[in-house]
Design brief:
This protein has helices at about 1-20, 30-35, 50-75, 80-105, 105-115, 125-165, 185-230, 235-245, 250-305, 310-350, 360-375, 390-415; strands spanning about 380, 385. With about 425 residues, it is mainly α. The chain has one domain (about 20-415). A two-stranded antiparallel ribbon has the order 1-2. Strand 1 (about 380) and strand 2 (about 385) form a beta hairpin. It is elongated and about 95 Å long. The chain starts with a helix and ends with a helix. Its main location: membrane. It is found in: Cell membrane. Keywords: Cell membrane, Membrane, Olfaction, Receptor, Sensory transduction, Transducer, Transmembrane, Transmembrane helix. One of its GO terms (molecular function) is olfactory receptor activity. It holds the Pfam family 7tm_6.
Length: about 425
């Protein structure tokens, strides 16, 4: 473990020296490290012309990879073999489309990145600092595990493609030309290149879905800090009265305290608006392809398990990654909506009746925060449904229906 820790530390120090990814206690630290190797380029930072050129080249190769698979898919008449290709093609196309959706809203991602770099609310207080630091460490831990799962899946994918002749996930491509008979060595080299591109696909996928999860966790953390501050309003008011010199002006202290919370709550509402805009089209694309990918992978496993353990492990790990990421996104969105609605309850528990003599000093900010909290809207998925735990359960039932349909279709096709 010491050797691994030294290697990881050396890698982080190298990236920090050349790309300024921030401190490990920042919530976006690992995302900035991932942005260095991912061709998605979702975070705003200075980039050299060489970096942009290399990542553009990677994107071009990935698009050619998807086109090659689409070409092979269009030439197939065997249902089961076509299902192999549909599984991988849907995976590749989903990664490209999700990143394309996110690139339409780079301004929202950059706005959230700037807010995370410069927190303004309760900086220096034990609860707020500890909460932000713990979430940053948890993000690094969770994202690190996710990236390890991506790397293991891609490594098995490369081995399976290069070792097995009739691999479940092998790219049986003859695009743009078939070199298997005229130049088998070049054909083998092309297979290796197509397989190694899987690492770029893994980083590309991670840069999109993990960015969404980190942004949601950032918003949830800030809401928890805000709610904790609301729950301790009486203690804060008493503490400020004790710290004031001379006779304390209770109305002024109360007004400043409530206005401070009202301003930050409005900032949190803006954060939620950024996330809602970002997720509107992204979530629709994600759930559409999530159902196709999981249904085709699991159907393929059920009708032709195959002889290779690698061939079985790859689709299981791929579906597990999609399942966990989708479940996490739904639960985080649900939690964020509930925390926003909880603001009105926490604010009402404040001992406001004894301050009613101050009139509008207390009424205006409290009414504003309670109205904003009570008018919280759900996150829309393309205007067709809402992102929630209920949607995740519905997609699981839909996936089962799709699996049964495709399995029956494949069995009918294979019968003489």
């Amino acid at each position: 473990m010491t050797v691994v820790h030294r290697i990881v530390s050396f890698g982080f120090n190298l990236i920090q020296r050349h790309f300024n990814v921030g401190h490990p206690t920042e919530q976006f630290f690992l995302l900035r490290c991932l942005d260095v190797v991912s061709p998605a380029m979702l975070l705003q930072r200075p980039r050299s012309n060489l970096e942009v050129a290399l990542k553009t080249l990677c994107l071009s190769v990935m698009v050619a990879h998807a086109i090659a698979l689409a070409y092979d898919f269009s030439q197939q008449t065997d249902v089961r073999l076509a299902m192999d290709m549909l599984s991988m093609l849907s995976l590749f196309v989903s990664i490209i489309l999700r990143s394309t959706c996110m690139r339409q809203y780079l301004a929202h991602i950059n706005a959230l990145d700037r807010l995370e770099k410069r927190p303004t609310f309760r900086v220096g207080t034990p609860y707020a600092d500890e909460s932000r630091r713990n979430v940053a460490l948890q993000n690094s831990r969770y994202l690190g595990v996710a990236l390890v799962m991506h790397s293991l899946t891609v490594t098995m994918y490369v081995i399976q493609n290069m070792v097995r002749e009739h691999s479940f996930v092998k790219i049986i491509t003859s695009f743009p030309v078939d070199l298997s008979e005229r130049a088998p060595v070049l054909e083998r080299a092309a297979d290796l290149c197509y397989s190694l591109v899987g690492y770029v696909w893994g980083w590309y996928h991670g840069a999109t879905q993990l960015t969404i999860i980190v942004l949601l966790r950032y918003a949830i953390t800030e809401f928890r800090v805000f709610l904790h501050s609301l729950d301790s309003l009486d203690d804060q008011l008493r503490q400020r009265r004790e710290q004031s010199q001379g006779a304390p002006d209770e109305e002024r202290i109360l007004r400043e305290l409530l206005y401070e919370h009202a301003r930050y709550h409005s900032q949190l509402v803006v954060v939620v608006t950024h996330l809602r805009t970002l997720l509107r089209n992204y979530s629709l694309v994600h759930f559409s392809f999530y159902m196709i990918i999981v249904a085709t992978f699991m159907t393929r496993i059920s009708i032709i398990p195959g002889r290779s353990a690698f061939g079985l492990a790859i689709p299981l790990m791929a579906t597990s990654i999609y399942f966990l990421e989708t479940f996490g996104m739904c639960m985080l969105v649900e939690m964020l909506v509930q925390l926003n609605r909880k603001v009105s309850t926490s604010l009402y528990e404040f001992s406001w009746p004894q301050y009613l003599r101050y009139g509008r000093t207390i009424k205006r900010p409290m009414m504003l925060m309670m109205m904003q909290a009570n008018m919280t809207k759900d996150f829309s998925a393309g205007g067709m449904t809402t992102v929630s735990a209920e949607l995740f359960a519905k997609t699981c039932r839909m996936i089962y229906t799709m699996m049964m349909f495709m399995a029956n279709m494949a069995n009918v096709e294979s019968q003489p």
